[in-house]
Amino acid sequence: MFNKTLLTVIIIVLILHIQLLHAKPKSYSVIIFRVYGAPGKIKASINIEGIGTYTNISTSKGVLCFYIPGGFKDRILYAELTIEGKWYISLHGEPTYTKVYIDGRRRWIKEYPEVLYLINISDYPRNISRYYVKITLIKDQEYSLNGTTYTFYREIELHLRKPRLFITKSVRITLDNPFRIRIFFRNLIFNLDNSVFVCPPEAPEAQVLLSMNVPASSGTYSDEYIFNVSLIDLPTYGGFFDLRTYLIRKIGNVIVERYGEMVGLSRFLGVSAKVYEYKLHAIKGLLNASCYMSKSGSQGFNTALTKAVAIYFELRSSLRHAMLQSFLYMPMVIACIFIFSSIISKIFIEKRRYIVTALVFIAILMIMFTYSYEFRLFIYTWRELSEPYSSLQLIPGAIRYNYILAGAFTLLLGLFASVFFSYIILSSDRLNYTYLIFKRRKLRLALIIVTVSIVSSAIIVHGAFISGPVEKVSYRSQYSEYYFITFYGYLINRKYIQTVDGIVLKDLSKYTYLSLGEYLWISNFSSDSNVVTKKIVKVSYGDKTTYLNAYALNLSFTAKYLEFYRYVNGSINGALLSSRAFNELNISIGNSISVDGISYVVSGYFNYSIINLKDLDGDPLFRDPVKGVFEAPDLIVPLNAIDSTWAIIKISIILNSLNDISKALTYIREGGTVIRGIAEPDGFNIVGYTYSCLIGGEGGIVERVYVDLQGAIVGDWIVQAVIVAISVLMISINALASSIERRREFKTISCLGANPSYIIVEVISEGASIGIISGLLGYFVGEILVFAYWNILGTATMFPRVHMGSLVLALLVSMISTIMGYLLPARNAIKNIIPSQLIERRKGKFIRTSSSEIKLTPIIKLKSDELNMFKDFMLTRFVRSLNEEGLYGIRIYDVRLIEDEKVLRIVMNGYFKSPFTSKNIELNIITILKLDEEMLQPVFVIKSKYLNLMFSSDLINLINRIREALMEYISFKKEKLFIKRIPVGNA
After folding, report:
1. How many domains does the structure of the chain reveal?
2. Separation CA 809–CA 372 (nearest Å)
3. CA angle, corner 350, sides to 349 and 356, nearest 5?
4. pLDDT of 462-517, one tens digit each?
5. d(Cα 527, Cα 524) in Å, to the nearest integer?
6. What are phi and psi for residue 796, nearest 5 degrees?
7. I want to staple 862 with a disulfide (CB 3.0 to 4.6 A). Which of 29, 80, 759, 936 is the partner?
8. CA pair distance 716, 739, nearest whole angstrom
9. Which domain holds residue 921?
10. How far is Cα 730 from Cα 452, in angstroms, rounded to an integer?
């Protein structure tokens, strides 16, 4: 039976093919029915009444009958129909659901017939558009005969209709790595000659898939965002329509809208920052530039669109990471708060402790909702999970139910643990005596709680550090004639590799070329701008053809602000040739040349010395920082010649005031900077894109560039461990004193029948209770400090890290430290206290004059005749000694000597690299000698705006290195004096 059916289908297809060959006008369609059912034998009968053309529309009906074994009655069966041709397909009969899905994912299971269009504009072959129509069949009747169940399905009609037509240019849209974009259309049919068929009566629609490949320690994963774009305002007439620019504008509107929603969510969480407004402004500017280039036919529109998408994914990734972390940590935090509430009611309340516990718990939750953005984010995450079609799609739909189950499980587990331990605390008679001791030892209890709270609050503040770009600032010149900003593209790529010797930094950061879209965006901030761009072009003059190194400039800008006329013979109204190319082509001023097919009039020539022409920033105008070379141009043309194939080296804009510089710099650099940290199996990578900016103003020319991401590397946990150890010792002292004071009480309860385990339970419960109380108090103190810091700063450059993990760590550390402190012997605690001689060594070491300056007290004295010897020492041995420490420590890269009649200053510029955080902290070491004194006493001043961010261990290490290097002057002096005593003949 099955073979007969297959033969019938083949005959029908052949008949249809013969009919198509004789159809007028020539248009073809091939109909293929594939039937999918439960495992087992499948029977199908297909009746096709006719085929439609543009002029002759008829219907094709298919009635399918399936044989279903008894064990597979409830399996959902469907048929897949493939139609190739130029047709609009609509399905009639039953209620129809029409929706676009991504191909290859087969997530659909519906109860009604549906039409599914999967048209990828880059995949269809010549003259064929493909439509995959998936039909879920409806059971009509079912009966059994001789043990066999027969199921019949309702009849379904497929109608073929003629669409309307318009012409467009290529709509292919691509993004640069690591981003991808795919667009799927419904009710739009594309042909090879860029003709587009719009299919009535339903409104056209496009589904857009934006994705970013994110490297991870275990490989890569794809962060995807899918959204629909309505194309209802497409033209209803024939003719040309710029569909590509139309789609870019539509996609851009959705990106801007979603980014605004995420910024609104950040404000709701209490983490609003000005930088988000700058980035939103950057997205709008880049999208406008992308639309402009697409409309003008330039192929560089994708680069500007990529940068806008990168800014969008930066905030999206940070927000989703914070959401998932809060979602996993918060149930444990809620459980700890409930236990804390029960302890408070047990200590201070005599009656109705259960009610008081609930009231304290609710009060703490209200406080957390007010001040803790993680708690609000936890609530929002549940709301996000409850909405299957969320507009932000921060949680992927494929794992949504997994997160719901995991969140519900952890929440129930935390609730069970909190209720269980709180019930034991509130109802146990054994703990009554311990909490009675709490009441009688209020002062000592307060001292222990304060000690542990300080430790836990330090952990909270340390873990909640706001991550953001680290800026490197260097001074180029003390004078600038104009207010200007010059932008270079800069790729950040810093690899922190973990080795047996510690963390090694491999800096692969480099300059990169800018895009045409960035120039269009940046030039909007000024009415006077210039761009330096280059390309190897084909130049033709008569029968001569050659390839020249061409530069395109804003010639009016160079004539107005630079000394361009000094190097040019002729005018700047057209193309300018070098004297070598001028003689090689044997050309005259006024002749026309062809540059890549564009005609220019030669208006002058220039000599080779033009390579010395300086730009506004003091750098040579024709210096390429990407290649690190100076290139003399052979041809200079106006800017109207450039397109996306030209390499843009830098962009310069002229501004009117420092206020305009600050505004433009903030909106462009902050908005266009995208930096992220990537965990690797052997370390950590910092990658991103930013601008190296040379800024000219009243203070001279300054270079500012982001070079790293602060807060991405694990912090100084060694110092935290030392603090915890010291707190354990202090707790041990107080616990020892408390146990001595209660010695008689312990003897009394022992005489009453208490065994040693009873006393151990009291000690452990007392320590654990103090740990929970102190940990949560430290959390609240740390939250207040972080909240105050965010509000004072106001311009956090990145989304803050979630520190719920730090809270759990603080609770564990406080509980373990208090329990250890209560169990440590008093004798060992006294022995391990801080020795007094360490305090004496630190005494008089330095004087801190401000948050950014440290002054070292003098330790050596010089005679007036030793001045030259000391200068020689500082410029040679001292610098070499500081630079010999290894991977970490001080690095000096610039030394200047400033001397007048009264004071000698030796200024050393360098940086300090911390062995704990591997961060480079820019600093200046200034040596000051007053020359009018009999005995010269060198005073060292350390200046850096990052001193207040340095750990105390790093600060002490920095000062010790300077003092150790300075003490080498004694041996240096002896060597010099010994050389002087040696006779010249024996030297």
Report:
1. 4
2. 17
3. 45
4. 655 556 677 888 888 878 888 999 999 999 998 888 777 777 888 889 999 998 88
5. 7
6. -60, 130
7. 936
8. 35
9. 839-981
10. 9
